[in-house]
Amino acid sequence: MTVNYEITERASGTRFSCEPEQSVLKAMEQQASRCVPVGCRGGGCGLCKVQVLSGEYQCGPMSRKHVPEAALACGEVLACRLYPRSDLTIECRTPKASVVTQQQIQ
């Protein structure tokens, strides 16, 4: 049986479930949530940057231009490369103007 984790975006209060081998961004999109902006989906553009406030996770490869080692050490990651290992609380790190623009495009 697959264990799903609950992901909570603190600022919006949005909650959705995510499978352990699924990226947080993919789970968010599949459940029609829009709490994090969507860009390239490949770890290169930095648009989906979030801060992990609580919980355990793993990360896939992502652009060091957008997430340097110091930021990664502080829990800043790209949602498209974020894989939960427990329930997570995240906070979007993209400026609000970018969030609105990206959501209007989709």
Q: Average pLDDT value?
A: 88
Strands, count: 7
Shape: globular
What does the oligomeric state look like here?
single chain
What is the strand arrangement across the widest sheet? 2-1-7-3-5
Low-pLDDT segments, ≥5 res: 97-106
Cα distance, first to last residue?
33 Å
Q: What are the secondary-structure elements, in order, as H or E?
A: EEHEEHEEEH
Largest sheet descriptor:
5 strands, mixed
**How large is the radius of gyration?**
12 Å
Which percent bin holds the helix content?
10-25%
Count the DSSP helices. 3
In terms of DSSP E residues, the strand content is 25-35%
The secondary structure category is alpha+beta
In short:
The chain is α+β, with helices and mostly antiparallel strands and 106 residues long. It contains three helices and seven strands. The strands form two sheets. It has a five-stranded mixed beta sheet with strand order 2-1-7-3-5. It has a two-stranded antiparallel ribbon with strand order 4-6.
